[in-house]
Structure formats: C-alpha cells, structure tokens
Amino acid sequence: MSTTPIPVTVLTGFLGAGKTTLLRYLLEGDHGLKIAVIENEFSEADIDGALLGDKAVRIVKVANGCVCCTGSKDLSYALTVLLEQLDQGEIEFDRLVIECTGLADPGPVAQTFFMDEDLREHYLLDGIITLVDAVHAQEQLSRSIAQAQVGFADRLLVSKRDLVEEADFLALCERLQRINRRAPVHVADHGRIDLSVLLDIRGFNLNDQLDRKMLFRPLMAGRTEKPDNITSLALKAERPLDIDRISRFMEGVLERHGSNLLRYKGILNIVDEPRKLLFQGVQRLYGADWDREWEDNEVRESVIVFIGMDLPEAELREGFESAQV
User: Fold this and answer.
1) Contact predicate 177/137, CB 8 Å
2) pTM assigned to the model
3) Which reaction does it catalyse (predicted)?
C-alpha cells in the first residue's frame, strides 16, 4: 500500500445546499488531481452517481443509508477496499472526498481517522467542508444536526448567495460565526470556488494556526428568535499556565461535557517552557504535542476555542482562569 498519507476531505451540508454541484465542479476541474469519492447516498436510487458520471476514479456506496447512523464499520471497510485496489493497481487516486448525506453528523466520520491505526497510516484527514444554503439556512439552522454540521467545519461555503439580499447574507454570516468562530466563510458560486479553499486545509494537523482576530472580534447581536444550541467560545490568557492545572481542567471538561463538544483547539503558553503546547480534538478524542519554541517577537499568550452544544461558559472561563500562574 501507499506510504504517503492520502488527504481526505469530508463534504457535508444540509439537504439541497449544493454538495453534488460542488463535487462535480471539483471532479471536473483542470487541476491534474486524481480524486476518489466515497458517496454516502441516503436512498437506494443512485442519484448522485448518475449526476457525477465516470469523472470520479471510483464511487463506493457505503451501506444503504447514512454511514453516521450505521457507525464507522462500513466506512472503514470502504476505505480499506480503496487502499487494496490502489495497491493492486486497479485504481489510481491521490485524494479522497467523502460526501455525507444532508442528514449526517460528520463527527463519526472524523472519528474514524482517529480510532483506526491502520487507516491513520494511509489517510490524512485534511478538513471538513460544510455547505450552507443561503435561501433556507435560517430555517434549516433551527435543527441541531444542521448546527452540528456548521460546528464541525473547517471551512463554511455559502451557496445561492445571489438569491438573497445583502442584509440577509450578512446576518447569516454573523450567525455562522457565532456557531463556529474558527471557520472562515466563503461563497460558492454555483459550485465554483478556488480550490485552495477546498484542499490542503490541514484542519486536523497539530499546528498553531488560529486566527486570533477572527476569534475575538465582536459580533452583532443575533437576529434569531432564540440562541443556537451550538456555539463557539474563545478563551485567552496572557499569564502562563501551570501544566498540571491545565491538564486537570481539560480532563474535567472532557469528563463532564465531552459528549457535547464538537471541535476544540488550543495553543498554550506553559510556565518555564520555551515551546508551545498544542492540542486539538473531536468530541472525546484528542491529541497533544509540543511544538516549536516561542519567537522573541511573538506575544506569549494561551488561546483555546471550544465549539459545542450548550457550553457552560462561566465554568469554562473560571476553570481556565484557575490554570493560570
């Protein structure tokens, strides 16, 4: 099998948001990439297969229905089959796209690449892209699954922008940023968008890429009737952290609220330590490691962003404050 990990992009979004249109644009683009697709179609009819034709190297059907409902077993099997066929020379691809149904929670898909060691050696989860229908978004975002799709995203793509007024579009962008402050919002014009937005995101790499200006900029008051269940919370500490205290803090957060967390990431300044401590996770699965040393011209501060359901803001702020020296 290939020794170079194959980048994986998870494409999600609510029903009618334009995932198939975007996927067709990606497959037909003049980029020289060989792309395989795992199509997660919710019905028995091969709807997307008919639309996509033979542009993909191979479209693998994952069971009959939503892979996230049947667990990760079928997805793991499909991923293994692709590797075997690649190794045997039956197919050739250098990137993989997993298209989730509009009713799917992308969390279990992402967890597959954390839990299976064999798959982790051959696949690299690059990022989760969520499409949002500008026309129907405010209605669809009343559903927790649509909010979860936004919360998991590394990139948010708004489709049908030309069908809504500027004020409504801006209100939607503000709402999306309240749910997920770490994912930039882009517009997809009938499925067309610069490939740099879709590929090589490195959303699941342990790195110090956090846009502090975006995380801490003020947002307008929401125009929704009630607050969204899923929100994001960014915390910052100018004083260094005690490593034992911050460890206990994160362990307690995961123990008490792990089932409500979607994504979280931190860049930590540990007392008497010249290196940055990085960590990130999906729900209860996370990784941490030491990174490069702080540079002389860098502001040494700790930043954590949580994205989850019904986040206990006061408790998280107090716990993070107690970890500071």
Assistant:
1) no
2) 0.87
3) GTP + H2O = GDP + phosphate + H(+)
